[in-house]
Structures are given as C-alpha cells and as structure tokens.
Write a structure and sequence with these properties.
6 strands; 36% helix; alpha+beta; six-stranded mixed β-sheet; globular
Length: 127
C-alpha cells in the first residue's frame, strides 16, 4: 500500500469505530491479528477485540476520534488521538491514545495500543 492508501485505510478504520460499525472493523483485521494493550499487557484476538468494541459501542455514545495525528511508514502507521464520547450516565469521557499499526496484505496484522489505565477505568464504568 502506498501512503495515500494507508491514510485512507486508517480513516475508514477509525470512522467505522465512531459509527459503531464493528463488521468493518472485523474485516480490517487479518484472521491472526494480535491486538496488544499496554495497560493489561495482554494480546487480544480478532474476535476478542470485536467483543470489546461491541461493549464500548454499547456503553459510549457520540464517539469521535479528536485530534487525529497520523504518521505513515512503509507497512503501517502510528496514530495519536483522543477518543471522546458520552457514557450512559451522561458523563462525557475522553481517552487519549497512541497506536502503532502494522499492515499485511491491506489489513491490520498487529495493533499496539498505548493508553492510560486511569482513563480506561473511567471509560469502562457502568451505571
């Protein structure tokens, strides 16, 4: 993929999450994708991550990725952003993050996500 194609892919991927389109997210991953989070040091599979995203979509409305800063490299990209939304209790929340994404055959083969665990806890609260 050239730089323009990678930029377009990244935009579609994050736009899909904003819209709650988990099928597009699932289709953006290779079957053997590894999704790692710094706050728990675990690797999720494609289906585990899709379930996580379904839960987030169900808990957080008005999702938007603000301040997207995208840097492209030969086989992937790095993006910094702030995911904002509204919890079911009406509280506005934000989740600053940085992701390193490695692509293979036009899909995400590895995603490393760096976020502050304190922000994750607020995001995941349910009422």
């Amino acid at each position: 993929m050239d730089e323009a194609a990678i930029r377009a892919f990244a935009k579609r991927f994050f736009d899909a999450i904003e819209q709650g389109d988990v099928d597009t997210v699932r289709d953006s991953y290779t079957p053997d994708v590894e999704i790692w989070h710094n706050f728990d040091d675990l690797i999720q599979t494609r289906e585990e991550n899709v379930e996580t995203l379904k839960g987030m979509v169900g808990r957080i409305s008005d999702r938007v990725y603000d301040n997207r800063r995208l840097e492209v490299f030969a086989d992937g990209f790095v993006q910094q952003h702030v995911l904002r939304g509204t919890r079911k209790d009406g509280k506005r929340v934000s989740l600053p993050a940085a992701l390193i994404v490695k692509l293979r055959d036009g899909k995400i083969a590895r995603l490393d996500e760096y976020i502050d665990s304190a922000h994750v806890a607020v995001f995941r609260q349910t009422f």
